[in-house]
TrEMBL record:
<protein>
    <submittedName>
        <fullName>Putative HNH endonuclease 2</fullName>
    </submittedName>
</protein>
<dbReference type="GO" id="GO:0004519">
    <property type="term" value="F:endonuclease activity"/>
</dbReference>
<keyword id="KW-0378">Hydrolase</keyword>
<keyword id="KW-0255">Endonuclease</keyword>
<keyword id="KW-0540">Nuclease</keyword>
Length: 73
């Protein structure tokens, strides 16, 4: 999944550690389900890929900033 999104943060370009990269739904209204291990274990691969295509890949810092823009320093 990470490689299909370019294996780097779409916002800042971070690419040093895959563990720090997360899928982010930029349009929450288009989100059918969350992409976490618990949810994914009960989904067909095609559904997972379709959901991931709605997302952008962000590093953990950019993902936190995307969800909490009011906390910017």
């Amino acid at each position: 999944m990470i490689r299909m999104k370019g294996a780097r943060c779409a916002r800042c370009g971070y690419k040093d550690n895959y563990a720090a990269l997360q899928l982010h739904h930029p349009d929450p209204s288009a989100k059918d389900f969350q992409l976490d291990l618990r949810t994914l274990s009960n989904r067909r691969w095609q559904a997972v890929v379709a959901e991931a295509e709605k997302c952008v890949l962000l590093c953990a810092n950019c993902h936190a900033e995307a969800h909490n823009p009011e906390c910017a320093m």
